[in-house]
Amino acid sequence: MQSNSEIFVQILDILRPLAQGGVEITAETDLVADLSIDSLKTMKILVMIEDRFDISIPINILSDIRTVGDLSLQIQKLLAEDD
Fold first, then answer.
1. With 0-12 CB in 10 A as exposed, 13-18 as middle and 19+ as buried, what is 3?
2. Residue of 73, 10, 70, 66 whose CA lies nearest to 34
3. How much of the chain is in helix, strand and coil states, percent to nearest 5?
4. Domain 4-82: assigned CATH number
5. Which of 17, 23, 37, 82 has the most Cβ atoms closer than 10 angstroms to its Cβ?
6. In degrees to the nearest 10, what's the CA dihedral of 58, 59, 61, 63?
7. From CA 55, how far away is CA 45, in angstroms rounded?
8. Residues 40-77: tens digit of each pLDDT
9. Closest residue by Cα to residue 14 from 43, 77, 3
10. Which helix (H) or strand (E) holds 15?
């Protein structure tokens, strides 16, 4: 199983091109407030994450995700369920 830090690094690879104005992305970075992620970008990110990690992200967990750290934690939980 991948560690949270390994997952976080892969998420950074996905999010960096979408970050505007050279925003530094940390675990505390708010996806909406800091990165201006709208619903269209959210769907694009979800597809890229699903492809990268070979998982399916249920829509109902999106309400639990506010920061990049939250996203990493949810992905780690989904990967653990698949093991």
1. exposed
2. 66
3. 60, 0, 35
4. 1.10.1200.10
5. 37
6. 180
7. 13
8. 999 999 999 999 999 999 989 999 999 999 999 999 99
9. 43
10. helix 4-15
